[in-house]
Amino acid sequence: MAIEDNVVKLLMDNNLTITTIESCTGGKIASKLTNVSGVSQVYEKGFITYSNDAKCELVGVDKKIIEKFGVVSEQTAREMAIKGAKTAHTSVALSVTGIAGPLGGTKELPVGTVFIGCYLEGNTLVEKCQFNGDRESIRENAAKKALNILQELIVKKYKIY
């Protein structure tokens, strides 16, 4: 069973709703979720917030967070997840911001650096990841990792073993 099938089942079983706020993945998480039959019961909406302005305008990310910490940062991923859940009125939000390449990397933030935010009923976790490969593989791996993080958090919170 694919990770997205497991995640949708966990969301349904626990009466959770989800939104996605994606930058470098460009809708890949939303695409994976919407491939699952019945997901409309739990998937509220998705935001592709590729530009800084989109992050601020669509989900309410504070521009000062981006200016202070950078768009590819733990703080921005956290703000995307929290504000995305609030905007969509969902109990769960997955956010992704990163550098898929091949351009845009720096010494401090090389290509493949991705921050994944997961908001689950008032608690937010952000994980920094470093993926290798080309642009497509970085985006694909980030989407899969985001779903894995969410699955682990739901299983832990609801003690599902």
Distinctive features:
Maf protein; alpha/beta; 5-stranded mixed beta sheet; 161 residues; 5 strands
CATH architecture: Alpha-Beta Complex
* DSSP helical segment count: 6
Number of strands: 5
Give the low-pLDDT segments. Answer: none
Q: In words, what does this structure look like?
A:
This protein has 161 residues and is α/β, with parallel strands linked by helices. The protein has a single domain (3-157), classed as CinA-like (Maf protein, Alpha-Beta Complex), CATH 3.90.950. The protein has helices spanning 3-13, 28-34, 52-59, 63-69, 74-88, 135-157, and strands at 18-22, 43-48, 92-98, 113-120, 123-130. It has a five-stranded mixed β-sheet, sandwiched between helices. Strand 1 (18-22), helix 2 (28-34) and strand 2 (43-48) form a beta-alpha-beta unit. Helix 1 packs parallel to helix 6 (135-157).
What is the compact description of this entry?
This protein is α/β, with parallel strands linked by helices and 161 residues long. It has 6 helices and 5 strands.
List the helices and strands and how they pair.
Elements lengths: L2 H11 L4 E5 L5 H7 L8 E6 L3 H8 L3 H7 L4 H15 L3 E7 L14 E8 L2 E8 L4 H23 L4
Helix pairs in contact: 1-6
